[in-house]
Amino acid sequence: MSESRLERRFAALKSEGRGGLVTFTTAGDPDYDTAFEILKRLPDAGADVIELGMPFSDPMADGPSIQAAGLRALDAGMTLRKTLQMVSDFRAADDTTPIVLMGYYNPIYSYGVDVFIKDALAAGVDGLIIVDLPPEEDDELCEPANAAGLHFVRLATPTTDDARLPKVLTNTSGFIYYVSIMGITGTKAASGDAVRAAVTRLKKHTDMPVAVGFGIRTPEQAAEVAAVADAAVVGTAIVERVKAGLSPDGIAGPNLVEGVVGYVASLAAGVRSARQG
Fold this sequence. Notes:
This protein is an alpha/beta fold.
């Protein structure tokens, strides 16, 4: 099998001697056109890998900000089919930046697993993060996705001990996403020492890149994580920039996209400064 976009990107980051920036936005938030404008500008702003959230009505692992983003997208008419269309539209101009879809199994199950995998590959999706499918359910989606050439990125947490970790890593590919704090997204941040210890432990079990997320809000925090991990993941804080750009009636304001893109550029600058000197 030829090297995937994710593999090429992390190999490039390693050769550059730096950690990467993984950004999360919700597809269709606050509307298709605005969300797509943000999406297509993320690479130039410094995003190395893009996580694109699949809106879902019951996002149990997400905090209030990402829950609200999903509801805004659903209210604007976003669907899983339109999410795949957004990736396809993005690929018309960018065939190098990896895109990983993140979300929950229910919409994929409703869409039809085999059809979804086929359509996702055709659209240019590189991988999946499905937060409510544990390794014990790998035959549902993980195994057929891997067999077709879609990476299946797994989450590890502070409670994923050394006995559990090999099971979590089975069938995982692309990278491992370390959730640095317990609880829902966007609530608090882990210390640099805790992240360093966690990455060191994970690296004893796998050669895969380790991306660390949850709670990163500032360029300084992103730099601290990128100094020890293969990538820093920022989601909630980006989604909150989208909300900040909305009018009182929920319409995208004239400065929304620039506000989001400028913020991502500041995070990227932090990440790129992490290992200098």
